[in-house]
Records
---
Amino acid sequence: MSRPSARFELGARRELITVDECRITPYRDGPLLVRGPFKLTDQDGNEIDARRETIALCRCGHSKIRPFCDGSHTTTKFRAAGGSEGRRRT
Ligand code: FES
């Protein structure tokens, strides 16, 4: 059985690649970009139709279309690192 895959542009070179796993990237002062095969659900397991293979998820809390980013982070001056800000305690 083949795994699901997705094609998308990556990086400044606009290279088309095919991936078979989901990739989530926190963008500096912005959303979480989700690329690749994924399923987005609410907390009850109901699927949320993302309608695309790459989505931006709001992490600033100000979007009017949550869980998706609507660009409001730019007007609220949201600040966050473009990577990990440390580890969670277990
Ligand atoms: S991260 Fe873009 S609106 Fe929240």
---
Amino acid sequence: MKQTEYDVIVVGGGGSGLAAAVSAAESGCDVLLLEKQPVLGGTTGIAVGSFTTSGSRLQSKAKLKDSPEEHAEDAGKFAPEEIERLNTTELRNHFLSHSAETLEWLEGMGLAFHGPSPEPPNRKARMHNVVPNAKAYVAVLHSRLVKLGGTVKCSAAVVGLLREGERVSGVKAEIDGHEFSLEANFGVVMAAGDYANAPDLISAYKGSEFENIEGINPHAVGDGHRLVDAAGGKLINMEVTYGPELRFIAPRRVDPFEQFIPTGGWKGKLLAKLLPFVPKSIIRKKIKELLVTWQHPEDSLFKEGAILLNKEGRRFCNEWDSPKREILVSRQPGKEAYILLCDHLIKKFSEWPYFISTAPEIAYAYLDDYQRMRPDLVFKGKSLTVLATLSGMVPQHIHAAVEGFNLYVAGEKKDPFGRTGDKMFLGGQTWMLLGPVKAWFTTTEGGAAINESAQVLDAGGYPIPGLYAVGQNGLGGQILWGHGLHIAWALTSGRLVGLELGRRKEVE
Ligand SMILES: Cc1cc2nc3c(=O)[nH]c(=O)nc-3n(C[C@H](O)[C@H](O)[C@H](O)COP(=O)(O)OP(=O)(O)OC[C@H]3O[C@@H](n4cnc5c(N)ncnc54)[C@H](O)[C@@H]3O)c2cc1C
């Protein structure tokens, strides 16, 4: 790297890092963004893209009167009480009062949203979905950053923070096999995502029984949290996670991390510059092709009588008992399981209100939708033996699992896994297996303690000069349950820290 001194260095090129880099560049800073992976995007780049906010232009268009104050009240109704009481109220209120401006900022860059859509217990419709999915945030912010003259380096892992006395003055980064010391005159912004796939951190903070469970994003290994910790920053709510939950695996034929604009070579640079002139319909079509989903099967499947089998065909858990169910899934061969449905369940989960999962574009997906859109996840047969042949399960095991379950329903035996009260036998002429499902952490909710300027705080509550954190890296103890608040926070915290660093440059 020829240039080794910048105004601002951003660690991580997901949603929060890109927003921070763009906003700082818009505020007159010379910005370097370092991304560990060969592509930008992080978890943001594989997300659906919902952005939940109040007081938006689209709400006004829909004649909805809303306010951040009402939103703040409702945001507290999503998580269970024992989680919600850990929330840092002032920071979450501060965030919610700035999130609509962020949506406007993004619309100003050419991003389109549909909605607002309702999501109770929100009393107003507040969910705005970027069209067609979250890869659009990455493409548009990347293009804007290139246009503003920011520097983006991928395959560039930050491995340490430089200090000048108390102040964090830059980063140590490994780029193309070489180690560089890079100076940041006004601030280092940690935007390195979460630790959903860091078994050591999960085990230390949440418990060793969870250590087999992976993060949906395999690259979310908590580098940013470790760097903050090593610099003396305080980490809070590290035991709180979003999940584990069961999700269907993503289609095997696609690379979930592929993005619309390549990050290397002349093609990437050219496309980043040309993006504002490429017709939106082409961008949408291409980004839609990159769509990957890990849908979450509804618990109602099990409440209505479905059971889980491992890939050998054995039953292994009480399907109603989460997160124990997820822990046990993570201990099965291949960490995989299948949902077994018989006649009465197949009929039931074919129409409202018994959907299999939510789904992009169609909102709710039923069995027919899965057979059409994800045939790779559906095995169907007229007998358990046929089903075993199709799926590779051992016929004796699958028969034994169904017989054992039916003996419990008949009241002849206790359920060996502790289910009680099932009334419907498994049986009939048609059988289905849905899967594989795996247990995954979607995100983790621990982050650096920060103040409203996104400065990282130490154990005594004092800011560490020069060190900032945003997105999942800088959650500051907020509880952001429900859909759409994580991305709203990632992009809002990024935008705000960029403005803050611009102000610092002006006064210093
Ligand atoms: C399947 C899925 C769907 C989701 N859908 C939604 C949704 O619709 N709405 C919503 O609000 N939330 C959603 N979420 C959650 C949301 O996407 C994330 O919480 C949010 O995007 C995180 O943004 P971030 O910038 O903090 O982290 P990321 O987007 O993960 O970015 C962090 C980046 O930092 C990089 N990095 C890490 N370590 C280093 C290092 N040492 N040096 C340099 N770079 C580093 C990473 O490679 C990564 O690119 C979803 C999550 C998942 C898994």
---
Amino acid sequence: MSTTAIADNSVIASKEETRDTSNDIIINAENIKFCPGPCNDYSEECPPETRGNEKRYFFKPYSGGRYNQLSYPMQNGGEIFLKNVRMCSYCCKRLIEFDEEGCIEYLQNDSKNIIKKLQKMKVLA
Ligand SMILES: [Zn+2]
């Protein structure tokens, strides 16, 4: 079992800085049932598995909760903020690794895929 730890309610990559926020995209992912990350999976999250008295959810956080906010830099200097989000473990892992390693270009590329996905799913116009 992969246990890459992102504490519930953690805030990833929300660095306070004086930058132009006019290109930012803020998505409230509260009602989004699919993973809004850069993966190719457009399907709804599977129902949780029950193990003993515990439910294990498919997306992260595995507790079934939501991250307050995850963000991706875009090439235009803006950022995509995914608020109240659940995301698949693959996308979470990518985000953490790229963020830790400072792979901005990869994150910018992921942000393009996120926008494409959200447009296709009619979350974004
Ligand atoms: Zn994903």
